[in-house]
């Protein structure tokens, strides 16, 4: 009853298929299940799909390989074109860099020429100052900074013999940097940057050299003016003492000249200034030599004056008498020093002077030193300012040990105090 109910509800169960295989006397039975049928269909479908896929691959393989090769060839051509373009850019940069390097080397050569000119000028100035005995500082060829030099004397280094190597290094560095940037696929303004940096550097150096040159000319003018002013002061003092001064060194002779006007050249300006300085220093040295040779020093430094130049009571007769010099208090044996350079024209006993030395200083001026206890020079000796010529005493017409000192111009006695006072003014000017 239950079985019948189930058949009514779910339907009649499907009978399985049976395959009978007979081979001679042998008979086999094979029952075909539904899942076996499904599995067989799936297997056959997979085989069919595999066959279709393999057939499609074989058909399309040549097309795929051709397309791939075409794409690779196209990419290769594009890379080759890019490489060729980069090489062309590198060549252009290299050519530009070579030109920039040549320009830099030309500028360096010009800077070197300017430096050598300044060095030569400084050597001329040093030789001139040393020859004239001047002691001063002048701007030289020191170092040139990248900034403009300051007035406090700071200097920067100027280009030296390694400057061409510096230019080559600058060019190589710029070339390598440009090639590196090109290899990365972009071209910045490297060569322009290098050229700009070089131009700024050379501009600063050129300005520094020009300022040094201007400072040299200005300093030369200052020295020439100072030398002329000092020479004028010395000459004025000498003239007030009646000393003739050779003014030929101070006169600028005007020769007959002419020609069309042309802009001045810096080298000519420098030579003109140097000639003016040379003339001023020559004149200064001339008047200094004259002043050093004349009797402006003190014959008995630190000694008191006991009798001055002019009329005074005569120590022996009591009446007025002319005193042709000045007397210095000097104990016997005190060293007597010359007041100027010259030649001894008298040395020994001379009437009322006692032991006396007379020195000719030139220009008609002579000095006499009397009453010496001992004479230490002889006629014909050349003496310099400050040389010891004898020892003080009381020989001749004297009342006690002292030094009688006279100055004579063209044989006439003059007041020695004028020369002593002038000597105090000349000391800072001639030393």
TrEMBL record:
Keywords, ordered alphabetically: Hydrolase, Membrane, Metal-binding, Metalloprotease, Protease, Transmembrane, Transmembrane helix, Zinc
Necessary cofactors: Zn(2+)
Protein name listed in UniProt: M23 family metallopeptidase
Residue span(s) of domain M23ase beta-sheet core: 322-416
InterPro entries noted in UniProt: Cell_wall_metabolism_enzyme, Dup_hybrid_motif, M23ase_b-sheet_dom
GO biological process, one term: proteolysis
Domain of life according to the entry: Bacteria
Pfam families: Peptidase_M23
Chain intervals for the UniProt region annotation (Disordered): 132-162
Transport recorded as keyword: no
Entry keyword Transmembrane helix: yes
MF-aspect GO terms: metal ion binding; metalloendopeptidase activity
TM spans (from-to): 35-60
CDD domains: M23_peptidase (cd12797)
PANTHER family for the chain: CELL DIVISION PROTEIN YTFB (PTHR21666:SF288), PEPTIDASE-RELATED (PTHR21666)
